[in-house]
Amino acid sequence: LASSRTHTLTYTIASRCVSEQKRKVYLEMLKNDRMRPLRDTIAVCYKHAEALHINQIFGIEANGSWWYPLEMEDYISKSTSPIHSGAVVMNGKGIYEDNSILLSSYHGVNAKTVKFTYTTDNSSCLKGKSYSVVIVLTEDITR
């Protein structure tokens, strides 16, 4: 994929959360020094969300700080390992199965949502900007 254009990949998914549905992924090859805007919402099947690496979902690390709802704190851990220092991992399955965290609706299906905000350091290349993403935990990611 050497050219800087959009490529379409089609695949069929089958899992405990979804049955035999065709999906597409659009892969855009960018020119050097370009970055696409982050997605503001992603849906994840809660059954397979025991260890979501939030840094990878964001796709950026710029010596920043994280914010997320206090009631989610028991399900979010930060690595202190020298190799993975700063990695933030969320147990989405635990959040979904916790009855004290209220269900909401996402496109007409039951869901629980967690909003993460990452604020970069002023000294970083992103100069103190904040980015947010809402992670939707649901049984039905097809809607």
What does this structure look like?
This protein is mainly β and 143 residues long. It contains two helices and ten strands; from the N terminus they run E-E-E-E-H-E-E-E-H-E-E-E. The model has no long low-confidence stretch (mean pLDDT 81). The longest helix is centred in the middle third of the chain and has 6 residues, at 92-97. The chain has helices at 54-58, 92-97; strands at residues 6-13, 21-28, 41-45, 52-53, 65-67, 76-78, 88-90, 104-106, 109-119, 130-138.
How would you summarize this macromolecular structure in one to three sentences?
By secondary structure, the protein is mainly β.
The total count of helices amounts to: 2
The largest sheet is: 5 strands, mixed
Q: Helices and strands: which structural class?
A: mainly beta
Q: Into which percent range does the helicity of residues fall?
A: under 10%
The end-to-end span amounts to 30 Å
Low-confidence runs? none
- Order of helices and strands, N to C? EEEEHEEEHEEE
Amount of beta strand: 35-45%
Strand segment tally: 10
Gyration radius, to the nearest Å? 17 Å
What value does the average pLDDT take?
81
Q: Which overall shape is indicated by the principal axes computed on the Cα atoms?
A: globular
Topology:
Elements: E1 6-13, E2 21-28, E3 41-45, E4 52-53, H1 54-58, E5 65-67, E6 76-78, E7 88-90, H2 92-97, E8 104-106, E9 109-119, E10 130-138
Parallel strand pairs: 3-10
Antiparallel strand pairs: 1-2, 4-7, 5-9, 6-7, 8-9, 9-10
Keywords:
143 residues; mainly beta; 5-stranded mixed beta sheet; 3-stranded antiparallel beta sheet; globular
